[in-house]
Amino acid sequence: MQFKANLFLTLLAILVLGLLVNLGYWQLDRAQQKQDLLDLQDKRLTLKPVDLMNIDLSDTTLRYLPVNVTGQLDALHQVLIDNQVRNGRAGYSVLTPLRLNDKQAILLNRGWVPLGNDRKVLPDVKISSLDVLVTGKLDHFPSVGLKLEYADQLSEGWPAVTQVIDINKVANRLGYKILPYQVLLDENEPDGYDRQWVVMKMGPEKHHGYAFQWFALAIAWVVIYFVLTVKKRREEE
């Protein structure tokens, strides 16, 4: 039997096939990005901490770099990042401004604390010492997939609660500059909470699995195309 394809069906098949294949390659690209991130962290974990004041923080490639930071903690003006989930339980990340001088500070992430029974009652995040020399690693602030309007607004009073960190809004509230990285407090340092720092919620293996699914769908779509085309041809005969 001679194979004869329908023009509309063929164009539709090509468009859908292209979409499925591109989605597969997109997932492979995401997997490689995640693997590069894991490799970067492993590499930088072997480095000795460097003094924060000797680093150009305008450099966007400093993630996971170990640092030593000397300054004074602003215990009266702390920030809680809401909706941070740990082991299936909601809570907050506790960010304390660590003032490097009179003009600027970096936010020190002291870890995760669980949400209490009453959302109106914020956790007690007091600090035992203010003048500190701490060790940690640089990281970006937590991001969200879909940022809702006002998600970066700070609640009234202190500690202030927010969904997303906007360093400009935090700086305006505090009255001094906030640097564009957070410092994840080392687990051996005092005055911290749960510090099981998670590099990513989804590892590269998940993306490989999704890529396989998209490519499998692409193959299935080709099979469906040929089956429908042959069936239509038989009906015409």
Fill in the keyword field for this structure.
five-stranded mixed barrel, elongated, OB fold (Dihydrolipoamide Acetyltransferase, E2P), 26% strand, 3 helices, 237 residues, 33% helix, 2 domains, single chain, alpha/beta
- How many angstroms does the end-to-end distance come to? 10 Å
Report low-confidence residues grouped into runs of 5 or more. Answer: none
| Radius of gyration of CA atoms, rounded to a whole number | 25 Å
Question: How large is the share of residues in beta strands?
Answer: 25-35%
User: How much helix is in the residues?
Assistant: 25-40%
Helix and strand run: HEEEEEEEHEH
List the helices and strands and how they pair.
Blueprint lengths: L6 H38 L5 E2 L14 E8 L5 E8 L2 E11 L4 E11 L16 E9 L20 E3 L4 H8 L2 E9 L18 H33 L1
Parallel strand pairs: 1-2, 3-7, 5-8
Antiparallel strand pairs: 2-4, 2-6, 3-4, 4-5, 6-8
